[in-house]
């Protein structure tokens, strides 16, 4: 048994002291895991837009000082009371939304929206006792979405940890704990394009390109990428996107452009932008009779979706998804296996790599729109 079990661990973490200010590498104290909690040694983490969004804290409740980070992979160091599914040494992916396996959602085959462990961006403490497990000289440092992976060690609820194949390279499969699974699942689990179909992807960021990867895996014959930023098109070619449409290049609505390109509409569309206009276009561009549109992007607070109800009567279907409809503990280990069987490529999503001490560079790359995913290695 490791000598750290039951003791406070002192380690390095990137602490966000204030909204929008560079993170500071600090020595933090990480308390032992309490009931149903697990202390994880984080090996590698990546930066996702959601971290940046809540770090900027424009319009959301600011919770500071805080340790961000939620896309990661690590190894179990110790477990708290009542944890039977994980043991020290197990390889895990932390997930920002959990699966308690007991609530109505977890028991339903149709839902992944766990009542107990569903994402909560305002909470900065553990469920068990309403306290933080991180501190500096006795002052609490808050958690982020139950994961806080920008720390060499983190304490996470067992329901937010997927146990994965120990042979899986953590610096690749860490991407599956958020954005890539979201886009992939939006296509494979929700849009479900039949083989040979035409799929439009709105937004060619990491999530949209993962949705394109899903379309490729499903055997779509045409994958049409729609983005306002032409710089995204070069990268997208590596992801099997076969055609590109920039709405800015056309005088008519993009749904009309797509309908002309596809003899009446695409079979499936997946929206990964967060723009309400793109959401409406993504719905209206599907073919009547069978077309299905899936919304993934997170809209602005005051947005409203407006379309003519005749579109529904004409048998166009509109759906939305949370985390690609994957149940974190049940399904993620299988997505890791898809990567291990080489059915899914992850390497092409990794555009940058830094070590923990350079974490602010990862923020710069993302803010400048230069990176799809920047990997942050914890040893260094
Ligand atoms: P990103 O910013 O890297 O990519 C978004 C892309 O959309 C950009 O390339 C941008 O140019 C493009 N875009 C913006 N407006 C557009 C428009 N009107 N038409 C066409 N293209 C447009 O973001 P990302 O990390 O790939 O995430 C995409 C979205 O998915 C975000 O809204 C994010 O919040 C959301 N998301 C949802 C879930 C979920 O569970 N539903 C999970 C993770 C992320
Ligand atoms: Zn549940």
Strand content: 15-25%
The helix content is 10-25%
Largest sheet: 7 strands, mixed
Structural class: alpha/beta
Mean pLDDT: 96
What gap, in angstroms, lies between the N and C termini?
26 Å
Query: How large is the radius of gyration?
Result: 21 Å
The H-and-E topology, N to C, reads as EEEHEEHEEEEHHEHEHEHEHEHEHEHE
Cofactors and ligands: nicotinamide-adenine-dinucleotide, zinc ion
Coarse shape: globular
By DSSP (H or I, 4+ residues per run), the number of helices equals 11
Uncertain spans: none
Could you explain the architecture of this structure?
The chain has 380 residues and is an alpha/beta fold. The chain is built from eleven helices and 17 strands. Strands 3, 4, 5, 8, 9, 16 and 17 form a seven-stranded mixed beta sheet that branches. It has a six-stranded parallel beta sheet with strand order 12-11-10-13-14-15, with helices on both faces. A four-stranded antiparallel beta sheet has the order 1-2-6-7, with no helix packed on it. Helix 5 links the parallel strand 10 and strand 11. The structure holds nicotinamide-adenine-dinucleotide and zinc ion. Nicotinamide-adenine-dinucleotide binds next to helix 4, helix 5 and helix 8. The site of nicotinamide-adenine-dinucleotide has 28 residues, from helix 4, helix 5 and helix 8.
């Amino acid at each position: 048994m490791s000598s750290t079990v039951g003791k406070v661990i002192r380690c390095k973490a990137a602490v966000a002291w204030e909204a929008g200010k560079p993170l500071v590498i600090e020595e933090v104290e990480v308390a032992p895991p309490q009931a149903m909690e697990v202390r994880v040694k984080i090996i590698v983490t990546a930066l996702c837009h959601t971290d940046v969004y809540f770090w900027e804290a424009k319009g959301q409740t600011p919770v500071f000082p805080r340790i961000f980070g939620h896309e990661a992979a690590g190894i179990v160091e110790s477990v708290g009371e009542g944890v039977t599914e994980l043991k020290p040494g197990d390889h895990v992916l932390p997930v920002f939304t959990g699966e308690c396996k007991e609530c109505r959602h977890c028991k339903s085959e149709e839902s992944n929206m766990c009542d107990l462990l569903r994402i909560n961006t305002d909470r900065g403490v553990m469920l068990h006792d309403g306290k933080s497990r991180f501190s500096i000289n006795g002052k609490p440092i808050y958690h982020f979405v139950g994961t806080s992976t920008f720390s060499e060690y983190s304490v996470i609820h067992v329901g937010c940890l997927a146990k994965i194949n120990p042979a899986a390279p953590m610096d690749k499969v860490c991407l599956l704990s958020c954005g890539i699974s979201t886009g992939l699942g939006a296509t494979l689990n929700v849009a479900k394009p039949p083989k040979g179909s035409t799929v439009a992807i709105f937004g060619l960021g990491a999530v949209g390109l993962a949705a394109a990867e899903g379309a490729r895996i499903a055997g779509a014959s045409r994958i049409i990428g729609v983005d306002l930023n032409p710089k995204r098109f070069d990268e997208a070619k590596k992801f099997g996107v076969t055609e590109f449409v920039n709405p800015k290049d056309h005088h008519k609505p993009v749904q009309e452009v797509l309908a002309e390109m596809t003899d009446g509409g695409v079979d499936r569309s997946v929206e990964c932008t967060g723009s309400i206009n793109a959401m409406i276009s993504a719905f209206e561009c599907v073919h009547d009779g069978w077309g299905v549109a899936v919304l993934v992007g997170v809209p602005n607070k005051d947005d409203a979706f407006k379309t003519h109800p005749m579109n529904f009567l004409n048998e166009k279907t509109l759906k939305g998804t949370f985390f690609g409809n994957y149940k974190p503990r049940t399904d993620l280990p299988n997505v890791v296996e898809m990567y291990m069987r080489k059915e899914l490529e992850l390497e092409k999503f990794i555009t940058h790599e830094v070590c923990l001490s350079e974490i602010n560079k990862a923020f710069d790359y993302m803010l400048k729109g230069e990176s799809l995913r920047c990997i942050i290695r914890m040893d260094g």
